Protein backbone atom coordinates (compact mmCIF):
# COMPACT_ATOMS: atom_id res chain seq x y z
CA UNK A 1 0.00 0.00 0.00
CA UNK A 2 1.42 3.45 -0.83
CA UNK A 3 1.78 6.07 1.84
CA UNK A 4 -0.99 8.14 0.33
CA UNK A 5 -3.37 5.18 0.15
CA UNK A 6 -2.60 4.19 3.72
CA UNK A 7 -3.32 7.69 4.98
CA UNK A 8 -6.61 7.74 3.15
CA UNK A 9 -7.70 4.60 5.00
CA UNK A 10 -7.78 6.63 8.23
CA UNK A 11 -11.30 6.77 9.73
CA UNK A 12 -13.91 8.59 7.69
CA UNK A 13 -17.02 10.11 9.16
CA UNK A 14 -19.90 7.68 9.49
CA UNK A 15 -23.37 8.67 8.25
CA UNK A 16 -24.63 8.46 11.80
CA UNK A 17 -22.58 9.23 14.89
CA UNK A 18 -23.13 9.77 18.58
CA UNK A 19 -23.50 13.54 18.15
CA UNK A 20 -23.30 16.21 15.48
CA UNK A 21 -19.58 16.86 15.98
CA UNK A 22 -18.16 13.37 16.15
CA UNK A 23 -17.62 10.68 13.60
CA UNK A 24 -18.84 7.39 15.13
CA UNK A 25 -15.31 6.02 15.08
CA UNK A 26 -13.43 9.14 16.24
CA UNK A 27 -9.98 8.00 17.35
CA UNK A 28 -7.43 9.37 19.80
CA UNK A 29 -4.61 8.17 17.53
CA UNK A 30 -2.85 10.96 15.62
CA UNK A 31 -3.98 11.28 11.98
CA UNK A 32 -0.30 10.97 11.01
CA UNK A 33 -0.03 7.42 12.34
CA UNK A 34 -2.16 6.04 9.47
CA UNK A 35 0.72 6.68 7.02
CA UNK A 36 3.53 6.02 9.52
CA UNK A 37 2.28 3.77 12.34
CA UNK A 38 4.37 3.32 15.51
CA UNK A 39 6.58 0.22 15.31
CA UNK A 40 5.39 -2.83 17.29
CA UNK A 41 7.44 -3.70 20.43
CA UNK A 42 10.71 -5.30 19.33
CA UNK A 43 11.75 -7.28 22.40
CA UNK A 44 15.34 -6.08 21.82
CA UNK A 45 17.41 -5.24 24.92
CA UNK A 46 20.20 -2.63 25.01
CA UNK A 47 23.79 -3.80 24.47
CA UNK A 48 26.09 -3.78 27.53
CA UNK A 49 27.91 -0.62 26.46
CA UNK A 50 28.00 2.28 24.04
CA UNK A 51 30.04 5.36 23.31
CA UNK A 52 26.94 7.55 23.58
CA UNK A 53 23.56 6.75 25.18
CA UNK A 54 20.73 9.01 23.99
CA UNK A 55 17.48 9.20 25.98
CA UNK A 56 14.49 9.84 23.68
CA UNK A 57 13.85 8.89 20.03
CA UNK A 58 12.20 12.06 18.75
CA UNK A 59 13.65 14.61 16.31
CA UNK A 60 16.35 15.76 18.76
CA UNK A 61 17.58 12.32 19.83
CA UNK A 62 17.50 10.79 16.34
CA UNK A 63 19.25 13.73 14.70
CA UNK A 64 22.00 13.58 17.34
CA UNK A 65 22.19 9.80 16.82
CA UNK A 66 22.41 10.12 13.04
CA UNK A 67 25.29 12.61 13.16
CA UNK A 68 27.21 10.77 15.90
CA UNK A 69 26.83 7.41 14.14
CA UNK A 70 27.96 8.96 10.86
CA UNK A 71 31.09 10.12 12.70
CA UNK A 72 31.76 6.52 13.78
CA UNK A 73 30.44 6.57 17.37
CA UNK A 74 28.63 3.53 18.82
CA UNK A 75 25.26 5.09 19.62
CA UNK A 76 22.32 3.58 21.51
CA UNK A 77 19.01 5.49 21.63
CA UNK A 78 16.73 4.49 24.49
CA UNK A 79 13.02 5.29 24.11
CA UNK A 80 10.30 4.84 26.75
CA UNK A 81 7.67 3.88 24.15
CA UNK A 82 7.92 3.07 20.46
CA UNK A 83 10.29 5.43 18.58
CA UNK A 84 8.41 8.71 18.09
CA UNK A 85 6.20 8.26 21.16
CA UNK A 86 6.53 11.96 21.98
CA UNK A 87 5.71 15.17 20.14
CA UNK A 88 7.71 14.39 16.99
CA UNK A 89 4.96 12.22 15.44
CA UNK A 90 2.11 14.21 17.01
CA UNK A 91 2.75 17.78 15.95
CA UNK A 92 1.11 20.04 13.36
CA UNK A 93 3.86 19.59 10.77
CA UNK A 94 4.39 23.33 10.38
CA UNK A 95 7.99 24.08 9.60
CA UNK A 96 9.27 27.61 10.06
CA UNK A 97 10.71 29.80 12.75
CA UNK A 98 8.46 30.04 15.70
CA UNK A 99 10.45 31.63 18.49
CA UNK A 100 8.00 32.92 21.05
CA UNK A 101 10.75 35.21 22.36
CA UNK A 102 10.83 38.84 21.26
CA UNK A 103 13.98 40.91 20.87
CA UNK A 104 13.39 43.56 23.55
CA UNK A 105 12.89 41.26 26.60
CA UNK A 106 15.60 38.91 25.37
CA UNK A 107 18.02 41.83 24.88
CA UNK A 108 17.22 43.05 28.39
CA UNK A 109 18.13 39.65 29.78
CA UNK A 110 21.16 38.76 27.66
CA UNK A 111 22.24 41.93 25.83
CA UNK A 112 21.40 43.11 22.31
CA UNK A 113 24.04 41.11 20.38
CA UNK A 114 23.43 37.72 22.04
CA UNK A 115 19.65 38.21 21.76
CA UNK A 116 19.91 38.85 18.04
CA UNK A 117 22.16 35.81 17.63
CA UNK A 118 19.55 33.66 19.39
CA UNK A 119 16.71 34.88 17.17
CA UNK A 120 18.80 34.43 14.03
CA UNK A 121 19.13 30.73 14.82
CA UNK A 122 15.50 30.36 13.74
CA UNK A 123 16.29 31.00 10.08
CA UNK A 124 19.48 28.90 10.29
CA UNK A 125 17.52 25.96 11.69
CA UNK A 126 14.90 26.21 8.96
CA UNK A 127 17.52 26.19 6.19
CA UNK A 128 19.44 23.36 7.79
CA UNK A 129 16.42 21.12 8.42
CA UNK A 130 15.14 21.70 4.88
CA UNK A 131 18.47 20.39 3.58
CA UNK A 132 18.23 17.39 5.95
CA UNK A 133 14.76 16.53 4.59
CA UNK A 134 16.31 16.24 1.14
CA UNK A 135 18.72 13.49 2.19
CA UNK A 136 16.37 11.22 4.19
CA UNK A 137 15.20 7.88 2.78
CA UNK A 138 11.48 8.71 3.32
CA UNK A 139 9.55 11.52 1.59
CA UNK A 140 8.10 13.73 4.33
CA UNK A 141 5.74 15.45 1.86
CA UNK A 142 7.35 18.79 2.58
CA UNK A 143 6.15 21.86 0.65
CA UNK A 144 7.13 25.49 1.05
CA UNK A 145 3.57 26.79 1.36
CA UNK A 146 4.09 29.95 3.40
CA UNK A 147 2.33 30.73 6.67
CA UNK A 148 -0.33 33.34 7.48
CA UNK A 149 -0.38 34.77 11.00
CA UNK A 150 -3.82 36.28 11.63
CA UNK A 151 -4.22 39.27 13.99
CA UNK A 152 -6.97 38.68 16.55
CA UNK A 153 -7.61 42.43 16.99
CA UNK A 154 -6.68 45.81 15.51
CA UNK A 155 -4.13 46.30 18.29
CA UNK A 156 -2.53 42.95 17.51
CA UNK A 157 -2.28 43.94 13.85
CA UNK A 158 -0.54 47.21 14.74
CA UNK A 159 1.98 45.31 16.86
CA UNK A 160 2.62 42.74 14.12
CA UNK A 161 3.15 45.44 11.51
CA UNK A 162 5.59 47.27 13.80
CA UNK A 163 7.51 44.06 14.41
CA UNK A 164 7.71 43.32 10.67
CA UNK A 165 8.98 46.85 10.03
CA UNK A 166 11.40 47.34 12.94
CA UNK A 167 12.64 43.92 13.99
CA UNK A 168 12.26 41.25 11.32
CA UNK A 169 14.66 42.64 8.66
CA UNK A 170 17.67 42.74 10.99
CA UNK A 171 16.94 39.14 12.00
CA UNK A 172 16.96 37.99 8.38
CA UNK A 173 13.24 37.14 8.51
CA UNK A 174 11.29 37.49 5.30
CA UNK A 175 7.77 38.71 6.03
CA UNK A 176 4.96 40.61 4.30
CA UNK A 177 2.38 42.76 6.10
CA UNK A 178 -1.15 41.85 4.98
CA UNK A 179 -3.83 44.49 5.73
CA UNK A 180 -7.35 43.18 6.40
CA UNK A 181 -8.50 44.36 2.97
CA UNK A 182 -6.00 41.98 1.32
CA UNK A 183 -6.25 38.91 3.53
CA UNK A 184 -8.78 37.14 1.30
CA UNK A 185 -5.84 35.92 -0.81
CA UNK A 186 -4.63 33.99 2.24
CA UNK A 187 -7.70 32.89 4.16
CA UNK A 188 -11.42 32.43 3.56
CA UNK A 189 -12.42 34.05 6.85
CA UNK A 190 -13.21 37.56 7.99
CA UNK A 191 -12.30 36.98 11.61
CA UNK A 192 -8.83 38.50 11.48
CA UNK A 193 -7.87 42.17 11.31
CA UNK A 194 -5.10 41.50 8.81
CA UNK A 195 -1.86 39.73 9.61
CA UNK A 196 1.59 38.72 8.43
CA UNK A 197 2.63 36.32 5.68
CA UNK A 198 5.88 34.36 5.96
CA UNK A 199 6.64 33.07 2.45
CA UNK A 200 9.40 30.66 3.36
CA UNK A 201 7.58 28.60 5.99
CA UNK A 202 6.10 25.28 5.00
CA UNK A 203 4.18 22.13 5.80
CA UNK A 204 5.22 18.51 6.09
CA UNK A 205 4.05 15.14 7.40
CA UNK A 206 5.78 14.90 10.79
CA UNK A 207 5.49 11.13 11.25
CA UNK A 208 6.99 10.50 7.80
CA UNK A 209 9.77 12.96 8.66
CA UNK A 210 10.37 11.04 11.86
CA UNK A 211 10.34 7.70 10.02
CA UNK A 212 12.96 9.03 7.59
CA UNK A 213 15.16 10.23 10.43
CA UNK A 214 14.78 6.89 12.25
CA UNK A 215 15.75 4.91 9.14
CA UNK A 216 18.68 7.22 8.40
CA UNK A 217 19.99 6.90 11.99
CA UNK A 218 19.73 3.10 11.81
CA UNK A 219 21.36 3.01 8.38
CA UNK A 220 24.27 4.99 9.85
CA UNK A 221 24.66 2.34 12.58
CA UNK A 222 22.71 3.74 15.57
CA UNK A 223 20.75 1.22 17.64
CA UNK A 224 17.29 2.31 18.76
CA UNK A 225 15.82 0.37 21.69
CA UNK A 226 12.06 0.79 22.17
CA UNK A 227 10.12 0.46 25.44
CA UNK A 228 13.32 1.04 27.40
CA UNK A 229 12.54 3.95 29.72
CA UNK A 230 15.67 5.14 31.48
CA UNK A 231 14.72 5.17 35.15
CA UNK A 232 18.01 5.85 36.93
CA UNK A 233 21.47 7.19 36.09
CA UNK A 234 24.73 7.08 38.05
CA UNK A 235 28.36 7.89 37.33
CA UNK A 236 29.85 10.75 35.36
CA UNK A 237 31.13 11.53 31.85
CA UNK A 238 33.45 8.73 30.78
CA UNK A 239 31.54 6.09 32.78
CA UNK A 240 27.76 6.52 32.97
CA UNK A 241 25.62 3.64 34.28
CA UNK A 242 21.99 3.62 33.16
CA UNK A 243 19.09 1.50 34.44
CA UNK A 244 16.42 0.96 31.79
CA UNK A 245 13.14 -0.96 31.66
CA UNK A 246 15.02 -3.53 29.54
CA UNK A 247 18.25 -3.81 31.50
CA UNK A 248 21.43 -1.84 32.22
CA UNK A 249 23.83 -0.05 29.91
CA UNK A 250 27.12 1.78 30.41
CA UNK A 251 28.14 4.67 28.19
CA UNK A 252 30.93 7.20 27.98
CA UNK A 253 28.57 10.10 27.18
CA UNK A 254 24.92 10.65 28.03
CA UNK A 255 22.42 12.79 26.07
CA UNK A 256 18.94 13.66 27.36
CA UNK A 257 16.50 14.37 24.49
CA UNK A 258 13.20 14.05 26.38
CA UNK A 259 11.92 17.65 25.90
CA UNK A 260 8.30 17.76 27.23
CA UNK A 261 8.54 14.30 28.79
CA UNK A 262 11.05 14.65 31.64
CA UNK A 263 8.54 12.86 33.89
CA UNK A 264 9.01 9.61 31.92
CA UNK A 265 12.33 9.13 33.71
CA UNK A 266 10.91 9.46 37.23
CA UNK A 267 13.58 11.28 39.28
CA UNK A 268 16.41 10.36 36.87
CA UNK A 269 16.15 13.61 34.91
CA UNK A 270 14.72 15.88 37.61
CA UNK A 271 17.43 18.43 36.70
CA UNK A 272 15.56 19.04 33.43
CA UNK A 273 12.08 18.86 34.97
CA UNK A 274 13.12 21.80 37.20
CA UNK A 275 14.08 23.87 34.14
CA UNK A 276 11.24 23.16 31.68
CA UNK A 277 7.46 23.63 31.67
CA UNK A 278 5.62 20.70 30.04
CA UNK A 279 2.46 21.96 28.30
CA UNK A 280 -0.02 19.82 26.33
CA UNK A 281 -0.98 20.86 22.82
CA UNK A 282 -4.04 19.38 21.11
CA UNK A 283 -5.05 18.67 17.50
CA UNK A 284 -8.26 17.53 15.79
CA UNK A 285 -8.79 16.31 12.23
CA UNK A 286 -12.04 16.72 10.34
CA UNK A 287 -13.70 14.36 7.91
CA UNK A 288 -12.83 15.03 4.22
CA UNK A 289 -14.12 18.46 3.29
CA UNK A 290 -14.36 18.56 -0.51
CA UNK A 291 -11.98 20.21 -2.93
CA UNK A 292 -13.92 23.40 -3.68
CA UNK A 293 -14.68 24.04 -0.07
CA UNK A 294 -11.04 23.50 0.94
CA UNK A 295 -9.96 25.95 -1.75
CA UNK A 296 -12.31 28.62 -0.44
CA UNK A 297 -11.18 28.11 3.18
CA UNK A 298 -7.44 27.91 2.38
CA UNK A 299 -7.03 29.91 -0.86
CA UNK A 300 -3.24 29.96 -0.49
CA UNK A 301 -2.90 26.36 0.79
CA UNK A 302 -0.80 27.80 3.65
CA UNK A 303 -0.18 26.97 7.24
CA UNK A 304 -2.13 29.27 9.57
CA UNK A 305 -1.62 30.53 13.09
CA UNK A 306 -3.12 33.43 15.00
CA UNK A 307 -2.40 35.80 17.85
CA UNK A 308 -5.32 34.81 20.11
CA UNK A 309 -4.59 33.31 23.53
CA UNK A 310 -6.00 29.96 22.35
CA UNK A 311 -3.13 30.04 19.83
CA UNK A 312 -4.90 28.24 16.99
CA UNK A 313 -2.70 26.62 14.35
CA UNK A 314 -4.34 24.94 11.38
CA UNK A 315 -3.64 23.59 7.94
CA UNK A 316 -4.87 21.35 5.18
CA UNK A 317 -3.63 17.75 5.50
CA UNK A 318 -0.91 16.81 2.96
CA UNK A 319 -3.52 15.39 0.57
CA UNK A 320 -5.60 18.54 0.84
CA UNK A 321 -8.88 16.96 1.86
CA UNK A 322 -9.11 17.44 5.65
CA UNK A 323 -8.50 20.25 8.07
CA UNK A 324 -6.06 19.63 10.91
CA UNK A 325 -6.75 22.10 13.69
CA UNK A 326 -4.44 22.53 16.64
CA UNK A 327 -4.44 24.82 19.60
CA UNK A 328 -3.96 25.41 23.24
CA UNK A 329 -7.32 23.98 24.30
CA UNK A 330 -5.90 24.29 27.80
CA UNK A 331 -2.48 24.76 29.37
CA UNK A 332 -3.21 21.65 31.44
CA UNK A 333 -4.00 18.07 30.35
CA UNK A 334 -7.62 17.45 29.17
CA UNK A 335 -9.50 14.33 27.98
CA UNK A 336 -9.35 14.26 24.13
CA UNK A 337 -13.12 14.70 23.69
CA UNK A 338 -13.20 17.78 25.91
CA UNK A 339 -10.18 19.19 24.08
CA UNK A 340 -11.83 18.38 20.73
CA UNK A 341 -14.97 20.33 21.66
CA UNK A 342 -12.85 23.40 22.54
CA UNK A 343 -10.81 23.15 19.34
CA UNK A 344 -14.02 22.82 17.34
CA UNK A 345 -15.23 26.07 18.94
CA UNK A 346 -11.97 27.71 17.84
CA UNK A 347 -12.44 26.36 14.32
CA UNK A 348 -16.02 27.63 14.11
CA UNK A 349 -14.93 31.07 15.33
CA UNK A 350 -12.75 31.29 12.18
CA UNK A 351 -15.00 29.31 9.81
CA UNK A 352 -18.58 29.51 11.17
CA UNK A 353 -19.88 27.63 8.11
CA UNK A 354 -18.19 24.37 9.20
CA UNK A 355 -20.77 23.44 11.85
CA UNK A 356 -21.78 20.36 9.85
CA UNK A 357 -18.26 18.89 9.72
CA UNK A 358 -17.56 15.81 11.82
CA UNK A 359 -14.31 15.20 13.64
CA UNK A 360 -12.46 11.96 13.04
CA UNK A 361 -9.35 12.36 15.23
CA UNK A 362 -8.41 14.11 18.47
CA UNK A 363 -4.97 13.73 19.99
CA UNK A 364 -2.46 15.44 22.21
CA UNK A 365 1.26 15.65 22.93
CA UNK A 366 3.60 17.63 25.17
CA UNK A 367 5.71 20.60 24.25
CA UNK A 368 8.33 22.09 26.61
CA UNK A 369 8.52 25.79 27.36
CA UNK A 370 11.63 27.34 28.84
CA UNK A 371 11.50 30.17 31.36
CA UNK A 372 13.33 32.58 29.05
CA UNK A 373 11.47 31.58 25.85
CA UNK A 374 14.45 30.19 23.91
CA UNK A 375 15.78 26.65 23.39
CA UNK A 376 18.72 25.41 25.45
CA UNK A 377 21.67 23.27 24.43
CA UNK A 378 24.68 22.21 26.47
CA UNK A 379 25.61 20.11 29.48
CA UNK A 380 24.21 20.06 33.04
CA UNK A 381 25.95 17.92 35.67
CA UNK A 382 27.69 16.14 32.79
CA UNK A 383 24.43 15.29 30.92
CA UNK A 384 24.21 16.74 27.41
CA UNK A 385 20.84 18.14 26.31
CA UNK A 386 18.97 20.14 23.66
CA UNK A 387 15.41 21.06 24.60
CA UNK A 388 12.86 23.80 25.33
CA UNK A 389 11.60 24.51 21.82
CA UNK A 390 8.58 26.43 23.12
CA UNK A 391 6.16 24.64 20.78
CA UNK A 392 8.21 25.13 17.59
CA UNK A 393 10.61 22.25 17.20
CA UNK A 394 10.04 20.77 13.73
CA UNK A 395 13.00 22.74 12.35
CA UNK A 396 14.82 23.54 15.61
CA UNK A 397 14.90 20.10 17.28
CA UNK A 398 16.70 18.24 14.44
CA UNK A 399 19.04 21.20 13.99
CA UNK A 400 20.03 21.36 17.67
CA UNK A 401 20.31 17.54 17.74
CA UNK A 402 22.97 17.92 15.05
CA UNK A 403 24.72 20.78 16.90
CA UNK A 404 24.75 18.66 20.05
CA UNK A 405 26.42 15.83 18.13
CA UNK A 406 29.06 18.31 16.96
CA UNK A 407 29.69 19.38 20.56
CA UNK A 408 30.18 15.77 21.63
CA UNK A 409 32.59 15.17 18.78
CA UNK A 410 34.78 18.03 19.98
CA UNK A 411 37.01 20.36 17.94
CA UNK A 412 37.64 19.50 14.30
CA UNK A 413 41.04 18.39 13.01
CA UNK A 414 42.20 22.00 12.71
CA UNK A 415 41.24 22.58 16.36
CA UNK A 416 38.18 24.72 15.58
CA UNK A 417 35.28 24.48 18.04
CA UNK A 418 32.18 22.83 16.61
CA UNK A 419 28.56 22.92 17.67
CA UNK A 420 28.37 26.49 18.91
CA UNK A 421 25.00 28.24 18.51
CA UNK A 422 23.43 31.57 19.39
CA UNK A 423 21.88 29.87 22.42
CA UNK A 424 25.24 29.34 24.12
CA UNK A 425 24.79 32.68 25.89
CA UNK A 426 21.42 31.64 27.38
CA UNK A 427 21.28 30.64 31.05
CA UNK A 428 19.37 27.42 31.74
CA UNK A 429 18.59 27.66 35.43
CA UNK A 430 16.49 25.58 37.82
CA UNK A 431 13.61 27.66 39.20
CA UNK A 432 12.92 28.18 42.89
CA UNK A 433 9.72 26.46 44.17
CA UNK A 434 9.44 24.46 40.95
CA UNK A 435 10.05 20.74 40.51
CA UNK A 436 8.35 20.11 37.17
CA UNK A 437 4.68 20.37 38.12
CA UNK A 438 3.55 23.68 36.59
CA UNK A 439 1.13 24.76 39.34
CA UNK A 440 1.11 28.33 38.02
CA UNK A 441 -0.40 27.55 34.59
CA UNK A 442 -4.02 27.84 35.75
CA UNK A 443 -3.35 31.44 36.82
CA UNK A 444 -1.52 32.12 33.55
CA UNK A 445 -4.52 30.89 31.57
CA UNK A 446 -6.78 33.39 33.38
CA UNK A 447 -4.20 36.16 32.81
CA UNK A 448 -4.02 35.46 29.04
CA UNK A 449 -7.79 35.50 28.64
CA UNK A 450 -8.22 38.70 30.64
CA UNK A 451 -5.45 40.42 28.70
CA UNK A 452 -6.91 39.46 25.35
CA UNK A 453 -10.31 40.85 26.33
CA UNK A 454 -8.61 44.15 27.17
CA UNK A 455 -6.85 44.03 23.79
CA UNK A 456 -10.13 43.82 21.89
CA UNK A 457 -10.00 40.15 20.85
CA UNK A 458 -13.48 38.68 20.30
CA UNK A 459 -14.38 35.83 22.67
CA UNK A 460 -14.60 32.36 21.17
CA UNK A 461 -18.28 31.37 21.42
CA UNK A 462 -19.18 27.91 22.83
CA UNK A 463 -21.07 25.74 20.32
C1 LIG B 1 0.32 18.72 19.38
C2 LIG B 1 1.64 19.35 19.00
C3 LIG B 1 1.72 20.18 17.89
C4 LIG B 1 2.94 20.76 17.53
N1 LIG B 1 3.00 21.44 16.35
C5 LIG B 1 4.20 21.92 15.92
C6 LIG B 1 4.31 22.52 14.65
O1 LIG B 1 3.35 22.55 13.86
N2 LIG B 1 5.52 23.05 14.30
C7 LIG B 1 6.61 22.99 15.13
O2 LIG B 1 7.68 23.50 14.77
N3 LIG B 1 6.55 22.34 16.32
C8 LIG B 1 5.39 21.79 16.73
N4 LIG B 1 5.32 21.11 17.91
C9 LIG B 1 6.55 20.95 18.71
C10 LIG B 1 7.46 19.83 18.18
O3 LIG B 1 6.71 18.69 17.88
C11 LIG B 1 8.53 19.49 19.24
O4 LIG B 1 9.22 20.68 19.60
C12 LIG B 1 9.54 18.47 18.77
O5 LIG B 1 8.90 17.33 18.25
C13 LIG B 1 10.47 18.09 19.92
O6 LIG B 1 11.23 16.96 19.55
P1 LIG B 1 12.04 16.15 20.65
O7 LIG B 1 12.70 15.04 19.98
O8 LIG B 1 12.90 17.09 21.42
O9 LIG B 1 10.92 15.67 21.69
P2 LIG B 1 9.85 14.50 21.55
O10 LIG B 1 9.49 14.21 20.15
O11 LIG B 1 8.74 14.84 22.49
O12 LIG B 1 10.63 13.23 22.04
C14 LIG B 1 11.03 13.05 23.38
C15 LIG B 1 11.06 11.55 23.61
O13 LIG B 1 11.78 11.27 24.81
C16 LIG B 1 11.20 10.12 25.36
N5 LIG B 1 11.63 10.05 26.76
C17 LIG B 1 11.48 11.00 27.72
N6 LIG B 1 12.00 10.56 28.89
C18 LIG B 1 12.51 9.32 28.66
C19 LIG B 1 13.18 8.36 29.49
N7 LIG B 1 13.45 8.62 30.77
N8 LIG B 1 13.55 7.19 28.92
C20 LIG B 1 13.32 6.94 27.60
N9 LIG B 1 12.67 7.81 26.79
C21 LIG B 1 12.27 8.99 27.31
C22 LIG B 1 9.71 10.33 25.17
O14 LIG B 1 9.00 9.12 25.27
C23 LIG B 1 9.67 10.95 23.78
O15 LIG B 1 9.46 9.99 22.77
C24 LIG B 1 4.11 20.54 18.33
C25 LIG B 1 4.03 19.71 19.44
C26 LIG B 1 2.81 19.12 19.78
C27 LIG B 1 2.74 18.24 20.99
Write the layout of secondary structure elements.
Blueprint: H1 3-8, E1 22-27, E2 49-55, H2 59-70, E3 75-78, E4 94-95, H3 103-110, H4 112-133, E5 147-150, H5 154-166, E6 176-178, E7 195-198, E8 202-203, H6 206-219, E9 223-225, E10 230-236, E11 239-244, E12 247-256, H7 270-273, E13 276-286, H8 291-297, E14 303-306, E15 313-316, E16 323-327, H9 336-350, E17 359-370, E18 376-380, E19 383-387, H10 396-409, H11 441-454
Parallel strand pairs: 1-17, 2-3, 2-12, 3-9, 5-14, 12-19
Antiparallel strand pairs: 4-8, 5-7, 6-7, 10-11, 11-12, 13-16, 13-17, 14-15, 15-16, 18-19
Bound molecules: flavin-adenine dinucleotide.
Structure at a glance:
The protein is of the alpha/beta class and 463 residues long.
Largest sheet: 9 strands, mixed
Q: What ligands can be seen in this structure? A: flavin-adenine dinucleotide
What do we call the CATH homologous superfamily of the largest domain? FAD/NAD(P)-binding domain
In the CATH hierarchy, the third-tier topology of the largest domain is known as FAD/NAD(P)-binding domain
Going by CATH, the architecture of the largest domain would be: 3-Layer(bba) Sandwich
Unreliable spans: 1-19
Q: Please report the first level of CATH classification, the CATH class of the largest domain.
A: Alpha Beta
The overall pLDDT average reads: 92
Number of helices: 11
The total count of strands amounts to 19
Q: What is the terminal-to-terminal distance?
A: 39 Å
User: Could you spell the SSE succession in H and E letters?
Assistant: HEEHEEHHEHEEEHEEEEHEHEEEHEEEHH
Keywords: Oxidoreductase
Region (Disordered): 1-48
Pfam family, one: DAO
InterPro entries: FAD-dep_OxRdtase, FAD/NAD-bd_sf
Amino acid sequence: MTTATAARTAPRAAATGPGPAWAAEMTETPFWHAAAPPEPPSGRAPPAEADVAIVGAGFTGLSAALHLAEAGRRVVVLEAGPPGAGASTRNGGMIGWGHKARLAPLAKRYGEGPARAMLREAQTSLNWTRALLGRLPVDALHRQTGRFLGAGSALHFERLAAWARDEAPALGMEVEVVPAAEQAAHIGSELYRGGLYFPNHGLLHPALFHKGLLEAARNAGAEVIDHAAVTAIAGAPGAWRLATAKGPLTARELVWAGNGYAARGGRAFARFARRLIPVPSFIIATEPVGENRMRSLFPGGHAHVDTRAAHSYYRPCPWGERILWGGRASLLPLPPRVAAARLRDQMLSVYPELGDLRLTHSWTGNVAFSFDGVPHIGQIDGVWHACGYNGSGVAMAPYLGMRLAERLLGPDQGGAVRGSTGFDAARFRAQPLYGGNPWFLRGLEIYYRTRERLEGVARIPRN
